[in-house]
Amino acid sequence: MNKTILHNELQFKAVRSSGAGGQNVNKVSTKIVLTFDLEKSEGLTDEEKELLQQKLATKLSQESILILNCDETRSQLKNKEIAIKRFFDILTESLKKPKPRKKTKVPKSVKEKRLKDKKKSSEVKTNRKKPKL
User: Fold this and answer.
1) What is the pTM of this model?
2) How many angstroms separate the CA atoms of 111 and 86, rounded?
C-alpha cells in the first residue's frame, strides 16, 4: 500500500451539508464526499485489492467504488482531513491479517471437574425420583 499514490487517487466533492450552521447552511458547501476507485488504483497490489474487495464488500458500490461522507464540522478543510484519515484507517484495518488460532489442550483438571459436576447433577436428579419398593 503506497499512501502517496493512494492520496493522489482520491476524488473529493463538496456538497451542501445538512444540520447545524444557521444561514450558512444554504450558502456554503462544507460536506465532503470522498470517492476512491478500488479497481483502477495503482497504489495497491492485486492481492490487497482482492482482500479489500472481500472485507469492504458492504461499503463498496457495484463498480467497486468506496464512498465516504464527512459533515462533522462547518469547515470544508477539516471535513476533508477527517475523511482522508477515516479512509486510511479503513484501509489499514481491512488489510490486517488475523493471527492464526493456536489449538490448546484442555487441562486434565478441567476435564475431571466437568465429570465430577456431571456426576453430582446426575445424583441430584436420581434423588428426586420416587424410591422403588
Assistant:
1) 0.68
2) 47
